[in-house]
Specification:
By secondary structure, the chain is an alpha/beta fold. It has helices spanning about 15-25, 60-65, 75-90, 115-125, 140-150, 180-190; strands at about 5-10, 30-40, 40-50, 55-60, 105-110, 130-140, 155-160. Strand 3 (about 40-50) and strand 4 (about 55-60) form a beta hairpin. Helix 1 packs parallel to helix 6 (about 180-190) and helix 3 packs parallel to helix 6. The protein is globular, with a radius of gyration of 16 Å. About 40% of the residues are buried.
């Protein structure tokens, strides 16, 4: 028996949706954190990502186009991994990481443009040995969906427009969430 599914909100943006999904399927709720590694002088352009554990991943085409190597980005990897670990501690406190091995795990995000951050998260989780690893998002690019399909057992995407421009374009309110927002959502879902 696999037990209750584990629903992990990819913090910060995926947490509110993860709360709803966990409630609907009677799953256990927690968070996972991965951090985007942005291009030099263009931090919003994700050319890689790193989770709290595991190897960083990079978009090799973007690196080549920018004339960069993974070694060039080592300080960025260190900084973003440190931030990922800080966020996990902020969200979980002293609570241990949930058991992943042998479970159905659903990673939830608010949407995928390049998918690089979700890819780092699911790779780190795959190493922990889930029985089934799925990714659920309301909107994504066809390229991100196809890329994540090679990293997971299932990608559940409600809307995959061929003319995708930005995740925020599909939301009425796409305000950035804070650590306090994430903590409040997790506390409310836990009944505290």
């Amino acid at each position: 028996m696999l037990g209750r599914p584990l629903v992990l909100g990819l913090a910060r943006g995926g947490v509110p949706m993860a709360v709803l999904i966990a409630r609907h399927i009677d799953g256990d709720l927690d968070v996972t954190v991965a951090r985007k590694i942005g291009a030099p002088r263009r931090p919003e352009f994700g050319i890689g990502a790193v989770a709290a554990t595991g190897d960083p991943i990079f978009d090799d085409r973007s690196l080549a186009r920018l004339g960069l190597t993974a070694t060039d980005l080592a300080p960025d990897v260190t900084r973003e991994r440190t931030e990922a670990r800080r966020r996990i501690t902020a969200y979980r406190g002293d609570r241990p990481s949930p058991q992943v091995r042998g479970r159905v795990v659903i990673v939830v995000d608010d949407g995928l443009a390049t998918g690089v951050t979700a890819r780092a998260a699911v790779r780190a989780l795959r190493a922990a040995g889930p029985a089934h690893l799925a990714l659920a998002v309301p909107v994504c690019t066809p390229e991100a969906r196809d890329l994540l399909a090679t990293e997971t057992d299932a990608v559940l995407c409600l809307h995959c427009p061929p003319d995708f421009h930005a995740v925020g374009a599909y939301y009425d309110d796409f305000a950035q969430l804070t650590d306090a927002d994430v903590h409040a959502a997790l506390s409310a879902a836990a009944g505290g």
